[in-house]
Amino acid sequence: MARPAVCARAWACVLLLAWVPAAWPKTLPQRQTLAPMLEQVLPAVVNIVTRTRVRVQAHPLLDDPFFRRFFDLPEPERESLSVGSGVIVDAKHGYIVTNHHVIDNADVITVTLRDQRRIQAKVVGTDPEADVAVLQIKAKDLKAIPLGDSDTLRVGDFVVAIGSPFGLGQTVTYGIVSALGRSGLGIEGYENFIQTDASINPGNSGGPLLTTDGMLVGINAAIVGPSGGNIGIGFAIPSNMVKAIMEQLIRHGEVRRGQLGVLIQDLTPELARAFGLKGTEGAVIARVLPGSAAEKAGIQQGDVVVEANGHPIRSGADLRNAIGLVRAGEPIRLEIVRDGRRKTIQARVGDPNRAKAAGEQLSPKLAGALLGPIPARHPLHGRVEGVAILEVKRGSPAWQAGLRAGDVIVSANRRPVARVSDLRKALHNTDTTSLLLHVLRGQEAFYVVIE
After folding, report:
1. Is 101 a catalytic residue?
2. Residue from 131, 197, 318, 407 carrying the catalytic annotation
3. Is the N end or the C end of the chain the one with fewer CB atoms within 10 Å?
4. pLDDT (tens digit, 9 = 90+) per residue, 26-67?
5. Equal fold, 38-136 vs 356-450
6. Domain range 262-348, CATH architecture
C-alpha cells in the first residue's frame, strides 16, 4: 500500500519542477519611467511670485484729498501676493514664457529657479487676448526647454504638466491629450486650447505641458472645476500659438493684431448642403465690411475659408485665431471655396489702431471716450456690428451721459454704425443738436440721449 504514496510524491515533484523556471534572467528589464526626461526639463521650470499694491477701501472722509493732505495721511494700501509658474524658452537671453494673468498688474515679479536662486524679472511684453506673457531675467547657467510642434499632437498622446500648485513647488502630473482645438469657452479672446486630464491646479498657470520626450507643446492656462480644483479637465495654450505671439512680444513689445474686416460663422451641415459642399469643415464669410482689407482682396460674402497660411480651417474660431496671429500690415493667404471651386486669395490685414478715435474728435458730447472696433475678448465680437467704447474717463461728458467701457454703439441718430467712420458720418450728417445712441451692454439694449 506504500507504492501509491510514493507515486503521488513523485508526481508532486515532477509538477513542482515543471513550474520552476529553468533559469532566471541575468538582468531584469529596465522599468519604464519619466525620470530621465524630467531631470533634463525641471531646471527650466520656474516659480513666479508677484507682489501687487492694492488700494484698500476706506471711509469716504479719508478719500477726500484735502483731508488727507491736511493730516498728512498715507494712501491706504495692502500688498497682494500671487503665485504661478513659467518656463525658460531661451537660456541665452533669459526669456521666460508664462500667462498674462499670472503677472497682470504686478509691481514686483520674482522668479525662483530650481536651484533656489531668486531673481527679479522684467516684463518684455504681454498679450491679454491670448493670455501669454514674456519675462526676462539676467542669470548664468540657465536651461531652456525646446519648443515642440503642437500641430503634431493627437488625441490620446501622453503629456506631462509641471507647475507649482498651491505654492507647493515643482510638481509633475501625467495624463493624455483629451481633445484638441477647444474654443468657445469664454476664457480668453483667442482660444485654441489643448485639453488634458493631467492634473492642473491653481499655481500651475504658466507652467509647461510636455511630451514624454521633453518637448514643450503647451502652456498651462486654465481649469474647469466646481470649486477651482482639478477634476481632470485642464487647458493649455498650444506651443505654435505661443511661439507666434512670443516672437511679436520680443520683437515689438506688443501684439498688433490685424483685422480682415469680415463677419464669420461655422459651416454647419445645413449650410454645407446649401453651398453644395461635402464636408462641414470651414468658416463661412457672413459679411464683408465695406472698405475693409477683405473687400480689397476680393473676398465675397458666402465664401467658405478652408485654409489659412497653409493651416486647415475647421471652424470660425480657427479662422479668428489664424487672423489674430498675423501682425497688422502683413499678408495672409486664404484658400476658399466659391461656387464649388477652390480659389487662393492673398489679403493684407488692416491695422485696427487706425480705426480707433477719441470721442472729442467725433463730437464734444463724446469727450473722454475712446472708440474703436469690438475687441476679440468682447462677448459680442463677431455677433453684432457696432463701435465699442474701449475706455471712458471718469467724470467726462461721455461718462456723465452714462456710457461705460464695454458698451457697443450699434446706431447713432437712427443710422446703423459698424465702424468709427460710420459713427462720424452719422454724427455730422444730421440737423439735430442732440445725439441719440442705441447701445448694447451685456444682455441689455437701450437708448442714450445726449443733449
Report:
1. yes
2. 131
3. N
4. 454 556 788 899 999 999 999 999 988 766 655 555 555 555
5. no
6. Roll (2.30)
**Which of 178-192, 242-256, 376-390 has maximum average pLDDT?**
242-256
Please tell me the distance from the alpha carbon of residue 427 to that of residue 415, in angstroms, as a whole number. Answer: 9
User: In this predicted model, what pLDDT tens digit does every residue of 313-346 receive, in sequence order?
Assistant: 988 888 888 888 888 888 999 999 998 889 999 9
Catalytic-labelled residue, pool 101, 199, 239, 422 = 101
pLDDT tens digits, 202-217: 778 899 999 999 999 9
State yes or no: is 378 an active-site residue.
no
Catalytic one of 205, 239, 292, 411: 205
- 150 noted as active-site residue: no
For 38-136, CATH number? 2.40.10.10
**Spatial separation of the C-alpha atoms in residues 353 and 390, rounded to whole Å:** 12
- Is the domain spanning 150-252 CATH 2.60.130.10? The answer is no
Quote the pTM value: 0.70
Q: Give the β-pairing of 234-238 and 193-196.
A: antiparallel
CATH of span 356-450: 2.30.42.10
